[in-house]
Design brief:
Distance between the termini: 45 Å
Structural class: alpha/beta
Number of strands: 8
Number of domains: 2
Helix content: 25-40%
Largest sheet: 8 strands, mixed
Length: 363
């Protein structure tokens, strides 16, 4: 059974106090979290001075980048980094651990039952602060906040069991902090909360009203993407307006290659090739190979997508990339009872061969 702490203080203040204690006592090298900038916007920061913890906004409903992607870039600093991330960011982090891009032991991961994030454009025009009060009320009432990312409306994985510390935010009271210490390192640092611990597991039934609404929202989202009888024409309808910016690839937390093959010279069309194809076909599409790019990404993402929605958020052509990848991912990974980012010990199906699988396909 896990340990649990409860404080009569709001989640933000309670977490800030705890992180300050960890820094002041040398238990962590730094804190990774969203932070408030002087211009009023937020970004991710790596903080080493306890007095700067007051500037963090750990539960702010914005995701400038998927933190799972960023954590893989840190060099170990001797002591672990305390990282406050959303559940989908933690799941991306888990997948990066499996791919040996980051070491789990370098981090103390703190996550929480997330209410979702707003599209990046709402922060670019500095409108997000106008909706924060309504957002907070809807999260506490276990509602889906108005205007959040479509991917967030259908997210059902908001209680990561392998995070070090889990904080109950959705459905929680405004002046109450409840946190579950789920790993040995989290329990060893329990004293820095300055309260007694209790033996308790998180009651997942608390989230059932919200998860039921999100399941319905996901089904509605998936209904808008027909992946059953897509065919070539359907794929062209889905991805035909792609301008080849590869933004979806750049922001994806699972794409970690230094140089993506699709960005390499292998896909550079020189003049001779363009002229030859133009002579043969009479017309060619520019940029070329956009469909091949998305099919290549789809083959990777079917066992990797954590549904963060970054790809759709940055797409200038408004292609529902996240909905396509999430739907295909659930269909393919579901055949193996696999959920991307659920557990470090859960092997990626595409990396495993089992002779007894799918006997219906024949020998």
């Amino acid at each position: 059974m896990n340990k649990m702490i409860a404080l009569d203080i709001d989640c933000t203040t309670g977490l800030k106090n705890y992180l300050k204690e960890l820094l002041n006592n040398g238990k962590v090298s730094s804190v990774f979290s969203l932070r408030r900038l002087k211009n009023g916007k937020v970004d991710y920061g790596l903080i080493t001075q306890a007095e700067l913890i007051d500037k963090i906004e750990p539960f702010y409903p914005l995701m400038p980048a998927n933190a799972g992607q960023l954590l893989g870039r840190f060099t170990p600093l001797g002591k672990p980094i305390a990282a406050v991330v959303r559940p989908c960011e933690f799941r991306a982090f888990v997948e990066m651990v499996k791919r040996e891009q980051v070491k789990r032991e370098n981090f103390i991961i703190i996550t929480y039952s997330c209410g979702g994030v707003y599209p990046l454009k709402i922060n670019a025009v500095q409108e997000i602060d106008n909706v924060l009060a309504d957002y907070q009320q809807q999260v506490q009432s276990l509602e889906i906040p108005d205007g959040i990312r479509p991917a967030c409306t259908g997210c059902e994985h908001i209680n990561p069991l392998e995070a070090d510390i889990f904080i109950s935010v959705a459905g929680a009271e405004d002046d109450s902090l409840q946190a579950w210490l789920r790993t040995d390192i989290a329990r060893s640092l329990a004293g820095f909360w300055h309260t007694e611990t209790m033996d308790s597991d998180f009651n997942e039934s608390i989230l059932e009203p919200l998860l039921a609404k999100r399941k319905a929202a996901k089904e509605e989202l998936f209904a808008g993407v027909n992946t059953q009888e897509t065919g070539l024409n359907g794929l062209i309808d889905l991805f035909g307006r792609c301008i080849g910016c590869h933004g979806c690839n750049s922001v994806c937390p699972i794409c970690y290659c230094t140089l993506c093959d699709f960005d390499s010279f292998n896909y550079d069309y020189n003049r001779q090739i363009l002229e030859k194809e133009l002579e043969q076909k009479g017309a060619i599409r520019l940029p070329p190979d956009t469909l091949f790019f998305h099919l290549g990404r789809l083959s990777h993402m079917s066992f990797s997508c954590v549904g963060c929605g970054m790809c759709s958020d940055v797409c200038p052509a408004n292609i529902p990339v996240a909905a396509v990848f999430k739907k295909i991912g659930e269909e393919t990974a579901g055949m193996f009872d696999f959920v991307s980012g659920r557990s470090v010990a859960e092997e990626i199906p595409v990396m495993i061969y089992k002779e007894e699988e799918f006997p219906e396909l024949g020998e």
